[in-house]
Amino acid sequence: MALVISVLEQGMIYAIMALGMYITYKILDFPDMTVDGSFPLGAAISTVLIANGVNAYVTLPISFLAGLCAGTLTGIIHVRLKVRDILASIIMMTALYSVNLRIAGRANLPIYNFDNIYDNPVMNAIFPSGMKMVQPVVIIAVIMLLMKFLLDSYLKTKSGYLLKAVGDNETIVTSMGMDKGKVKILGLAIANGLVSFSGSLYAQQQRYFDASMGVGTAVIGLASVIIGMSLFGRVNLWGYTFAVVLGSVVYRACVAVAIRFGLQSTDLKLVTAALFLLIIVISRQLDRQGQRRVQKNLGNDKEEV
To answer: What's the pTM?
Structure first.
């Protein structure tokens, strides 16, 4: 039971981060490594504010705004300074490592003795003592679903459709008289806002900030997106964002099972890399099979004509 709860907690926290990766990877087709810095950025801001007596819930929107700023700077470096997308994001990721250390004041900052969004007098009064174990899961689920529906609502607006158009065909956006650069910057800002928000949730769940907690965030997010789109994206009953959420939970479950079967926690990055490689190979195989089916159906249609 404890293993299932742990998988759900971290799976849904990382799902919010994966939603940000969905914007950059699937919509904008932008290889954004900024997330390795914006994830611990949210964690650093939350832990410092909580340690200084700020309400834990207030730290969430502040972390989101900090992520917006990080994503905006990545976009400006790429769009205005004409730096290649991957290089622009690596530059920002590198800078954020020092920024996060400056904010936290040290490489590790615990907040074990402070209230957080999962454990505080208000929530403890709402949830009966018998639900103490699942209390964090319920809170995370509510926040995650709220962020998912907000993102879904935004993607249905004019700005959201422009974001999709930039990823599909930049020429169309330019022909409409819109600045594709500004649209890219906005997309990167929203994506990193979600990632930083997720980092805040993670730090409060773990009750500490560590400067290295962002290492591999991009890989985890991409793995979650690819798993979700490969396994559940073709069904699309509740939208692609829901597929991404499910992909994140499945990914965390795979990692938990691997550790449960004897692998050490120090092997987590190795498990992540191996699982990511396996997902990419399987995803490509599924795409090839789909293309073959399409070609076969086209051939049958031609024969009938």
So the answer is: 0.91
- Cα separation, 233 vs 285, whole angstroms: 15
Q: What is the pLDDT of residues 77-91, one digit of tens each?
A: 999 999 999 999 999
Maximal C-alpha separation, the chain: 74
- Domain span at residue 203 reads 2-304
Give the separation between CA 56 and CA 251, rounded to whole angstroms.
28
The pair of structure tokens assigned to 56 is 């834990």
Contact of 196 with 39, CB cutoff 8 Å: yes
Helix (H, G, I), strand (E, B) or coil at 236: coil
Alpha-carbon separation of residue 180 from 28, 59, 84, 296 (angstroms): 11, 32, 15, 38
CA-wise closest residue to 208 among 101, 114, 70: 114
* Rounded-to-integer distance, Cα 278 and Cα 280, Å: 5
Cα 271 vs. chain centroid, distance in angstroms? 19
- Please name the amino acid found at residue 216: G
- pLDDT, one tens digit per residue, over 108-144 is 999 999 999 999 999 999 998 888 889 999 999 999 9
Q: From the DSSP assignment, how many helices (H) and strands (E) are in the chain?
A: 12, 2
CA distance 20 to 199: 12
CA distance 195 to 173: 26
Q: Could you please report the per-residue DSSP string of 204-230? A: HHHTEEETTTTTTHHHHHHHHHHHHHH
Domain of residue 103, CATH code: 1.10.3470
Q: Which two tokens stand for residue 91?
A: 């530059």
Strand segments (E) across the chain: 108-110, 208-210
Q: Count of domains in the chain?
A: 1
Distance CA 224, CA 247 (A): 5
